[in-house]
Amino acid sequence: MSEGADPSSFGRVDPDGTVYVRTADGERSVGQVPDVPEAEAMAFFTRRYEALELEVSLLERRVASGALSPDDAAASIKTVRTAVTDANAVGDLPGLLARLEALRPVVDEARAARRAARTRHNEEVRAAKERFVTEAEALAAGDDWRGGVNRFRELLDQWKGLPRLDRATDDELWHRFSSARTTYTRRRKAQFAQQNEQRESARGIKERLTAEAEALATSTDWGTTTGAYRDLMQRWKAAGPAPRGVDEALWRRFRAAQDTFFAAKQAVNAEQDAEFRVNAEAKEKLLAEAEASILPVREPGPARAAYRELLERWSAIGKVPRDSIRPLDTRLRAIEHEVNEAEQERWRRTNPEARARAEETAAKLEAQIAALEERASKAEARGDVGSAQQARDSAATYREWLAQAQQAASDFRG
Q: Is the pTM of this model over 0.90?
């Protein structure tokens, strides 16, 4: 009851102590307090009203603050309304009922807001789960066998942290997610099973290759065994990886056998290179002498004889270190090339057929020049100056060609 309100305006007390409250439907007895003053009897029932008013006020504040859910607020309003309607109290009960009625739109608005928020949240959850499904299906179609399994685990944990949607939607999305995970798991197991099979096959191949390599480690057939190790290495690479620990152990054995052979080969080659160094020095001296005596080639015959003698002395000296082979051979081939070129040039200059062709060409050119000069004379005689000049110009060109042909013929005679 509002402060200062007169209780008698909301009720009255009979002489027998019966207290009445006034409502829109008329008076209603709320109880009897005999043998007490009227004011005290009225006060007893107004205190009950004050308690109800306090309850309504608290309910108003809780609804306004959102402390109650819309459903709980509606239930509380209904409970308090029943209590006010049937209350054995004196006060402005219709006012309390009006205040309770005023809370209904507030609750309805809160319910609508909560429904909208729930709809938005469900859409966000749906979008998140659809993203998870899309990513899961992409993983299921891919070949990321290491990272994919961890990502599926993360996606599943995130999925479990989301609330359920409506049954049909949630079941459909979960079915797609679960199917993608199953597909990925099956493909991953099949992939690793195939890899294991391949690795076991590679184990057998590499065990045999390692045994072959170890059998060759003490060979002294340097050339053949070097080729054999090259072939073994190609076969090793083609075999693919064996199980990790086994692969590393086999490789250490294979490499140790290789190193043993090539270390021995290198030691022998180093020893031979030391022995052959003297031969290299002798061949360098021999080349210097030949280059001074044969080059430049003036007479092909003596040069060829000198080159043959050079080859005999060259072979007699023997082998040289490997790093000296190419530079020495290059100088030897240069001398041979010069001798061959001199012989070819002599042949070209003394070739009877070539000389005859050169002389025949010169004779033809002389005849052509004579014909052109005769044509020029006849043209002048008839006064055709242009034709005469054209013939003489052509004759001049033929004379240049004749000079070249005569020089070629002279070279063959030389």
A: no
